[in-house]
Amino acid sequence: MEKEKENWEMPMATFLIDHHSDQLRSISSSPDPNLHFPLFIDYAELMEDNPRIARLLFAQPKTYLPVFDDAALWAHKIVLREMPDDKKGVEKKFIHVRINISGSPLECPETFPSIGRVRVHHRGILLTLKGIVIRSGAIKMHEGERKYICQKCKNSFPVYPEVEARNSISLPSICPIQSKPCGGTKFQYEENTIVCHDYQEIKIQESTQVLGVGAIPRSILVILKDDLVDVVKAGDDVIVTGLLTAKWSPELKDVRCDLDPVLIANNIRRINELKSEIDISDDMVKKFEQFWVHFKDSPLKGRNAILRAICPQVFGLFTVKLAVALTLIGGVQHVDASGTRVRGESHLLLVGDPGTGKSQFLKFAAKLSNRSVITTGLGSTSAGLTVTAVKDGGEWMLEAGALVLADGGLCCIDEFDSMREHDRATIHEAMEQQTISVAKAGLVTTLSTRTTVFGATNPKGQYDPDQPLSINTTLSGPLLSRFDIVLVLLDTKNPDWDAVVSSHILSEAELDRTTNDEDLVNSWPLPTLKRYIHYVKEHFRPVLTREAEIVISSYYQLQRKSATHNAARTTVRMLESLIRLAQAHARLMFRNEVTRLDAITAILCIESSMTTSAIVDCIGNALHSNFTDNPDQEYARQERLILEKLGSIDDI
């Protein structure tokens, strides 16, 4: 077996020199010989160049990955000799070949299963798993090798710790030197031969997006060594390639010993969940462009056609659907000269009577976001929302909560009023600064929470329009000010509205029996809407025009003057919210410029949050807002009214 491994070392080194000489030269230029250096190779490229080596790596990674590392050191020495003297570095001691399986035959369900489908037959092969880091352990010093001398034949041999035995070292029963078998059974430790490695344990969990209702997300322990430590943190989406093995559980009297699965990582990399899974073809982009060409004379009709696809099972509620769209799209993040970051993500809170469709919008919004976490106020404590410290094997670790797991996506919190006041206070920093500062069990750190918060709550008893929002919802002013839009949905028992809604529900039931595919040609299905939102977020960075700035500034100043009843809402955060909403509307309209139309729409959204002292009398109850037949005419009326109230007509 040893001779066979040596026979493969030369072709492995040849492959690395032929295909990765640039990486080898880059490693050679480093001045420190004791660092651990990664050498990244694509499995697909190796499979094409030398299928036998690729198959051996897949079937016996425990044997042949160390051989590949030795071949990398050999190739490094050859490249080092060929380099000019003025560019030569020092010879390195540790180079590790890291396998990337993207685009290779290993990217299949058998060798790339979900974490919950890992089974015994995956043990021993090169396995790849995808998940989100929910726990990140401390970086430790780990003994990776020590040498012993056989007292009979005086030859030395290395001994490695066993992961299965929780990294303990076991000496062989007889001398393992095969070239000169002596049968010796007594060994002595050789001084100064211990080789140590950086060592870290993380836990990854499968994404809840791929699980059905009632399924529990499974997790697995991952061991990182050397250059792989401290590469990822809690909340990161990762792809890990490595060797599946097991750990013995601690021995307890009269208790059967179990094996805990663990993945020894060969390679780990962070992925952008949104970019990796939402594929937007050129044909799809052309369809988006043609859609807006079709509605160039009446763009608001085109916008409303998109908004109708949001939660289509709920009749009307135009204001809510517009707010949901603007919240999911969000504005543009701004970083000033001092490095201070102003968030681009928007937050939305729905306050309403039971049966007004709040939870329906939460669930639909979660489907539109490729990374989302849904939780409830009753089901989440402050630790469940933010981060908690857990003790594992005598060591404290941080475990990510809902807001951290939703980093880069959407966090939906239903029954927002059910949380204790202390629990609500913990999300203040997460919503505005988009970080969570942790100081628990001696662990002091900061985690990222660049997430959009979508909350829903019932009012406290019967909603009283004469009282401020903070009293009706029992939510504090500082927390309310962090929401860009707060919509109040009141069930006023309007007979005309009830008749329209009941007719819609009954006609939908009739449509289910008679509809066919041709009737749905002009609708926006969920996958298309999801791709559209992702595309406009990625490709549009709207800039405010002068007239949009004047409208937003005038409205903000007017609200500040009359901020007696809604003091919690009319802070400087309102100005930032107006800018974000105007930018989001420009993106929704497929534009890179924020016009007066976008500014007026942002004002209408903010006005919907103001249950009293509104400057637009025609807003009314958001629950009874419906799509109009002529949105351009309706907008022109609202624009004229707003500009008259602002006194900005002469300036624009």
Describe this protein's structure.
A 5-stranded mixed β-barrel has the order 3-7-8-10-9. The chain has a 5-stranded parallel β-sheet with strand order 14-17-20-13-21. The protein is built from 22 helices and 23 strands. The chain starts with a helix and ends in a 6-residue tail after the last helix. Mean pLDDT is about 75; it is low at about 510-520. It has 4 domains: about 1-105, mini-chromosome maintenance (MCM) complex, chain A, domain 1 (2-Layer Sandwich); about 135-270, OB fold (Dihydrolipoamide Acetyltransferase, E2P), CATH 2.40.50; about 285-340 and about 495-510 and about 525-650, no CATH class; about 345-485, Rossmann fold, CATH 3.40.50. About 35% of the residues lie in helices and about 20% in strands. The chain is elongated and about 100 Å long. It is of the alpha/beta class and about 650 residues long.
